[in-house]
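testing teh design pipeline on a random one, pls ignore if ur not involved
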C-alpha cells in the first residue's frame, strides 16, 4: 500500500509540474522573431580553438562580402538585411570618446599597436582597421587599405543611423564607461531610444543600468543568476528577481531544458518585463555563437518573438523572413 501511495503521489507531482510548464496550455507572446546582428555584417571565422588572445582576423573564412565589423557601413548593411538590433563594441579613449572596435589591442586587425582604450581617438582615426585580415595564412590581405580611417565613434554611429537600435558591449571593467554613456544619453535624449541595451563588463554595465532609468542589460554574473535560479525553482511558475526587467541570453542548445520552453517561458519573461535573446549552440567560452545557417534555424521555435543573435545577418535575415512567410501562408490555407 505504501508503494502504491508513493507511486500515486509521484505521478501527481509529475502531472502538476507538466501542467505548470507545458507550452500547450499557453498563448505565446505576440510578434515574430527579430534579428540581432553581432558586430553588424562582418567577416566570420571558426570558433574552434579561439581563446581571449586569439587573433581572429588571421583566421577568417574566405570573404563573401566586403564589410568589416563594427563599421557604419556594416551596420547599415545589417539593417538592410532585416536586423532590428546591431551589437557593437566600445572602448572609452583618453580623449573621452567611445571608439567602436572589438579588440582590446590594435595589433591584430590594424596597422597600429597598443591598447585600444589607451589610444586617443585622433590616433585611432588614422588606422587601417582592415589591415590584418587574411583567409589564407597571410598570403593575401584582401581588406588592406579598405578600412583606412573607418573606426567610428559611438556618436558617429548614432548620428549616421538615427533609426537604428544598438546593443552596446563594454569591453572593459571601468565603471566610468557606464557613467560616461549615461552622461552622453542625458546630453542627447534623442539617442536614448537608439540604445536597446548594454552588456559586457559588469562594472560599466551595472553603472549604466543604475543611471539610465528603464534601460535593460546583462553581464555574466546576472545571466548566471537568472538562469541558475530559474533552473532551480522556475518549474513553480515563480520568476526569480534576477530575471525581471532585463535581457536574458539563452544558448540554443540548452533552451529546451528551461522550464516551460518555449511559449510558457517566453510568456513568463514577457510578464516580468524581460526580452529574450536566443544564441547559437554554447560550447564554452563567451556568448558569441550565433544562429548562423539554415540548420541553426531549427533552434528557433516557430512562434518565437524574441531576438535571434546571428553572425550572418545577411544570410539569416532572408532565411527567417522566408520561414515566417511560409508559416503565414500555411496558417492562411488552414
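output:
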Amino acid at each position: 500500500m505504501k508503494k502504491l501511495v508513493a507511486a500515486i503521489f509521484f505521478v501527481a507531482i509529475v502531472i502538476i509540474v507538466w501542467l505548470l510548464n507545458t507550452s500547450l496550455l499557453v498563448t505565446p507572446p505576440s510578434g515574430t522573431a527579430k534579428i540581432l546582428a553581432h558586430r553588424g555584417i562582418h567577416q566570420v571565422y571558426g570558433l574552434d580553438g579561439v581563446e581571449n588572445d586569439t587573433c581572429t582576423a588571421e583566421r577568417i573564412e574566405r570573404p563573401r562580402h566586403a564589410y568589416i565589423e563594427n563599421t557604419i557601413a556594416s551596420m547599415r548593411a545589417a539593417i538592410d538585411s532585416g536586423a532590428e538590433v546591431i551589437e557593437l563594441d566600445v572602448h572609452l579613449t583618453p580623449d573621452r570618446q567611445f571608439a567602436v572596435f572589438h579588440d582590446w589591442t590594435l595589433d591584430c586587425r590594424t596597422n597600429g599597436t597598443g591598447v585600444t582604450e589607451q589610444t586617443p581617438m585622433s590616433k585611432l582615426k588614422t588606422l587601417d582597421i582592415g589591415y590584418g585580415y587574411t583567409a589564407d595564412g597571410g598570403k593575401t590581405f584582401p581588406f588592406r587599405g579598405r578600412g583606412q580611417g573607418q573606426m567610428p565613434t559611438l556618436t558617429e554611429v548614432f548620428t549616421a543611423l538615427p533609426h537604428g537600435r544598438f546593443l552596446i558591449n563594454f569591453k572593459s571593467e571601468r565603471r566610468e564607461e557606464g557613467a560616461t554613456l549615461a552622461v552622453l544619453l542625458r546630453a542627447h535624449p534623442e539617442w536614448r531610444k537608439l540604445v536597446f541595451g548594454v552588456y559586457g563588463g559588469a562594472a560599466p554595465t551595472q553603472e549604466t543600468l543604475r543611471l539610465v532609468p528603464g534601460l535593460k542589460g546583462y553581464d555574466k554574473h546576472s545571466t548566471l543568476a537568472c538562469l541558475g535560479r530559474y533552473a532551480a525553482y522556475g518549474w513553480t511558475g515563480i520568476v526569480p528577481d534576477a530575471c525581471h526587467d532585463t535581457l536574458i541570453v539563452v544558448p540554443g542548445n540548452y533552451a529546451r531544458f528551461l522550464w516551460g520552453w518555449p511559449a510558457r517561458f517566453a510568456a513568463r519573461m514577457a510578464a516580468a518585463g524581460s526580452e529574450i535573446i536566443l544564441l547559437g549552440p554554447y560550447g564554452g567560452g563567451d556568448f558569441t555563437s550565433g544562429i548562423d545557417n539554415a540548420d541553426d534555424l531549427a533552434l528557433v521555435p516557430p512562434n518565437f518573438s524574441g531576438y535571434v543573435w546571428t553572425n550572418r545577418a545577411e544570410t539569416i535575415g532572408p532565411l527567417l523572413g522566408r520561414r515566417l512567410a511560409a508559416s503565414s501562408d500555411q496558417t492562411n490555407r488552414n
